[in-house]
Design a protein that fits this description.
The protein is α/β, with parallel strands linked by helices and 233 residues long. The protein has a single domain, classed as TIM Barrel. The chain has eight helices and eight strands. Strands 1-2-3-4-5-6-7-8 form an eight-stranded parallel beta barrel, surrounded by four helices. The chain is globular and about 45 Å long. Bound molecules: D-xylitol-5-phosphate and zinc ion (ZN). The site of D-xylitol-5-phosphate (DX5) has 20 residues, from strand 2 and strand 8.
Length: 233
């Protein structure tokens, strides 16, 4: 059984679709639409109203979502260390913590590395670290031995449907250089503000995972949207 990280590597370049931009009143049927596409990853934006202004969902919601797709949990919460186990128990395959969310981000990643995937003990947990647009890319340098993925936020965390921050493109290059200097096998994700209009430009920077919410669940044509975004990569 390949690990979550090996599966992500095989899937890359791919999209991780933001669940919260779906019509939550019909989430089951909205997610079932994705069965008609090659979407393999669902992105859950967990926000605590403290790390960022919005308050969204927690482990109970994530656990309630029954899906064969990988659960990609983006923790926009303050002091995540003691809460990681709840998200892993809720079925996380990927857990991404923000460097800005705790003094002990290295410890958070070490703790994640000891946890067992609730879906399948063989799968492991893919460990991500995320950077807000204003956080220097160099911040991840001491963490490179503890991560499988570096996620660059292309919007300031808190909402879907925001405008892509252009400086993210050169930040992708910087992260790629850091990774190649480290000789580590680490995936690059870009999260937020990626739409039909700019996905081709983002794809040129060869990210491994593009997180996209409102460009897929726009209330009109999620299947076509998802196929378009996947084809663009
Ligand atoms: C922002 C979240 C993003 C966002 C993506 O705080 O981390 O995942 O919801 O949604 P879109 O693709 O609509 O910007
Ligand atoms: Zn996100």
């Amino acid at each position: 059984m390949p690990s979550a990280f090996e599966t992500l590597k095989k899937l890359a370049p791919t999209v991780s679709v933001g669940v919260l931009t779906a019509d939550l009143m019909s989430l089951g049927s909205e997610l079932a639409l994705l069965d008609q596409t090659d979407v393999s990853i669902l992105h859950f934006d967990v926000m605590d109203g403290n790390f960022c202004p919005a308050l969204t969902v927690g482990p109970a919601f994530i656990k309630a979502v029954k899906t064969p797709l990988l659960k990609d949990i983006h923790l926009m919460i303050t002091e995540p260390v003691d809460k990681l186990a709840d998200y892993v128990a809720a079925g996380a395959d990927i857990v991404t913590v923000h460097v800005e969310s705790t003094r002990h981000v290295h410890r958070a990643l070490q703790a994640l590395g000891q946890m067992t995937n609730a879906n399948d003990p063989e799968r492991g947990i893919a460990r991500g670290v995320a950077l807000n647009p204003g956080t220097p890319v160099e911040t991840v340098e001491p963490l490179l031995d503890e991560v499988d993925m570096i996620a660059l936020l292309a919007v300031n965390p808190g909402w879907g449907g925001q405008r892509f921050i252009e400086s993210t493109l050169r930040r992708i290059e910087k992260v790629r250089r850091l990774i190649s200097e480290s000789g580590r096998d680490i995936l690059i994700a870009v999260d937020g503000g990626i739409t039909r209009d700019n996905v081709a430009e983002v794809a040129k920077m060869k990210p491994d995972i593009v997180v996209t919410g409102s460009a897929v669940f726009d209330g009109k044509a999620p299947v076509e949207n998802a196929r378009f975004m996947l084809d663009a990569l």
